[in-house]
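Supplementary Methods. Inverse-folding protocol.

Structures were first reduced to a discrete structure-token string of length 496. This string, shown here, constituted the complete conditioning input.
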């Protein structure tokens, strides 16, 4: 009997599970809030570029000596003023500052997308590991039943004095070993369920029990496209662009400034004591030319230049890592695919050998040690077959992660690998933040209808619709093992 966790688990398909992660994973939600915080930080950071207004109220108590006598006059004077100030951008620093702040937001969002890419890759790897662990658990349970039956037959033969006591000891040892392997398989499966629950925000999840399939390779290998889609590469590229803008902005540290101020006093009393007087209007222009700042600008430019060089090196390192990741994933896929093919043939041979050995032993023409060896070999090769299938899934996941297929692209659109999970399932709040750079091109940043992130984004097509949709070249990454030339191996090595 297949064990389950101590709490009731929700049986899910992989598309449903990925959707659950996108909606309820707490780490993902924390990252989303950091993206939203960065969005509002950009809006706040350019506030100084806009005119600022202030209101003032001044009050004073004045004692005045009256001329010609010793009496004093006590007067309370006050006024209310309104002041408008604005720094006029005469050196072009406002636009540069706006651009570097927007780039900072884009870097934050790209890093968040990279976290999505990493998280969903880890989730799918854990999913397939759990599916194959369950298959292994079924296999170990089947082996235990088989060895228990063999032990029963051996006991009957011993009672009939057909086999020695040694056969009883050996068959009993095989039962104990099978019980241990079954318990280990169960523990591995339950641990993977706990991992799935963690990534689903605490929901107890169990993969739906359906026919095991052997994956097919469906990733378009294109290194240049991977450099465009991988969110960590995009973050490194944006970091470099931002560093270049920051250097240009820093170089303006000794540029002249021009400040404009306008003030009006709508009320003052008494007029002879209050300054400025009632209805008085004033304006000023202050032009400042910095002469020296203790070489602060010079060394800040040096600092910005080194940051550019560091960003360039980081970008090149990520390009090399991308090439390495694709190569390693492809090599692992080829190795796992070849191993699956080889293990399939070994399963067929081991199954036939076990069948003949059992027949000979039941008819008294074979030794028990031969039966035990055949059973052990059959168990080992079936376990190795499951490992090969699992490694195929893991290699495929690694390839999708290497080309950035598990995350939205720069425009917030999901890439192909996620289309089968329900294209359009945007992260909560993410859709309202994605157009900051394009919506402010050539204009000052100002809050708009996109300033408040959307709290719920309905999918364009849900997981069930995607699941039932007409498959495309990339939409169905697996094939039914029983419908291919691997039919017998899948049946004997996985479905049992």
């Amino acid at each position: 009997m297949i064990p389950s966790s101590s709490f009731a688990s929700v049986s899910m398909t992989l598309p449903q599970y990925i959707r659950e992660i996108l909606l309820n994973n707490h780490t993902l939600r924390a990252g989303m809030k950091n993206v939203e915080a960065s969005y509002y930080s950009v809006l706040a950071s350019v506030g100084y570029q806009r005119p600022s207004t202030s209101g003032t109220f001044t009050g004073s108590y004045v004692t005045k000596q009256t001329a010609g006598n010793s009496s004093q006059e006590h007067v309370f004077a006050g006024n209310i003023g309104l002041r408008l100030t604005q720094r006029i951008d005469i050196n072009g620093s406002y636009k540069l500052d706006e651009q570097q702040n927007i780039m900072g937001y884009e870097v934050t969002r790209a890093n968040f997308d990279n976290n999505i890419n990493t998280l969903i890759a880890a989730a799918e790897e854990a999913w397939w590991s759990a599916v194959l662990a369950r298959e292994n658990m079924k296999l170990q349970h089947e082996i235990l039943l088989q060895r228990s039956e063999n032990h029963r037959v051996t006991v009957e033969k011993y009672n009939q004095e057909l086999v020695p006591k040694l056969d009883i000891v050996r068959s009993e040892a095989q039962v104990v070993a099978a019980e241990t392997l079954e318990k280990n398989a169960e523990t591995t499966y339950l641990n993977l369920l706990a991992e799935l629950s963690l990534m689903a925000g605490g929901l107890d999840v169990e993969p739906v029990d359906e026919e095991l399939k052997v994956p097919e390779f469906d990733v378009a290998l294109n290194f240049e496209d991977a450099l465009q889609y991988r969110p960590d590469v995009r973050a490194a590229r944006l970091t470099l662009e931002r560093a270049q803008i920051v250097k240009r902005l820093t170089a303006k540290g000794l540029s002249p400034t021009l400040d404009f101020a306008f003030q009006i006093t709508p009320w003052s009393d008494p007029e002879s004591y209050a300054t400025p007087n009632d209805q008085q209007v004033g304006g000023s222009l202050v032009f400042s030319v910095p002469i020296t700042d203790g070489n602060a600008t010079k060394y800040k430019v040096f600092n910005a230049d080194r940051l550019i060089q560091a960003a360039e090196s980081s970008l090149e390192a990520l390009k090399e890592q991308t090439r390495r990741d694709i190569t390693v994933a492809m090599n692992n896929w080829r190795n796992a695919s070849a191993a699956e093919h080889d293990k399939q043939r070994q399963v067929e041979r081991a199954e036939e050998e076990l069948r003949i050995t059992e027949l000979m032993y039941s008819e008294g023409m074979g030794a028990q040690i031969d039966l035990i060896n055949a059973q052990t070999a059959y168990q080992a090769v079936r376990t190795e077959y499951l490992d090969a299938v699992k490694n195929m899934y893991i290699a495929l996941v690694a390839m999708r992660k290497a080309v950035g297929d598990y995350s939205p692209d720069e425009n917030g659109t999901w890439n192909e690998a996620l289309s089968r999970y329900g294209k359009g399932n945007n992260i909560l709040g993410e859709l309202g933040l994605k157009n900051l750079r394009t919506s402010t091109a050539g204009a000052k940043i100002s809050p708009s209808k996109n300033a408040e992130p959307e709290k719920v984004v309905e999918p364009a097509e849900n997981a069930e619709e995607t699941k039932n949709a007409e498959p495309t070249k990339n939409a169905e990454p697996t094939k039914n093992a029983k419908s291919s030339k691997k039919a017998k191996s899948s049946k004997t090595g996985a479905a049992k």
